[in-house]
Here is the input.
Amino acid sequence: MTAVDVRGVTFRYRSGKGLGGVSFSVSPGERVGVVGPNTAGKSTLLRLLSKVLAPQQGTVLIHGRDLSGVGRLALAREVAVVPQDFQVAFPFSVNEVVLMGRYPHATGGAWGARDRAVG
Here is the structure.
């Protein structure tokens, strides 16, 4: 089973820009880079993979499950996105941001990893 399977995905903005008929698969453990010039659709693709946008045509599957039928909480267990420009509206420390992402999965192992990562 593939980790990510994108099949004939199309998404167009009102301006006409977007993605048209994109298909690819990513195997578990495989590393993939998304590169291209400005307005090529890189950010749109990531928004589709994280269900911020929904494809107008085609399907996006994560571990064989169509994202159209996956709830936000279940998706958050499978997909994480770190945006290029990350701004927090409140003065949280890195440690506090990491802690927010761990709720409600705060287990001993995760806390130890968090402590080692952010001190």
Observations:
- The beta strands are 4-12, 18-26, 57-62, 65-66.
- Residues 88-119 form one domain.
- The radius of gyration is 17 Å.
- Residues 108-118 form the longest helix (11 residues).
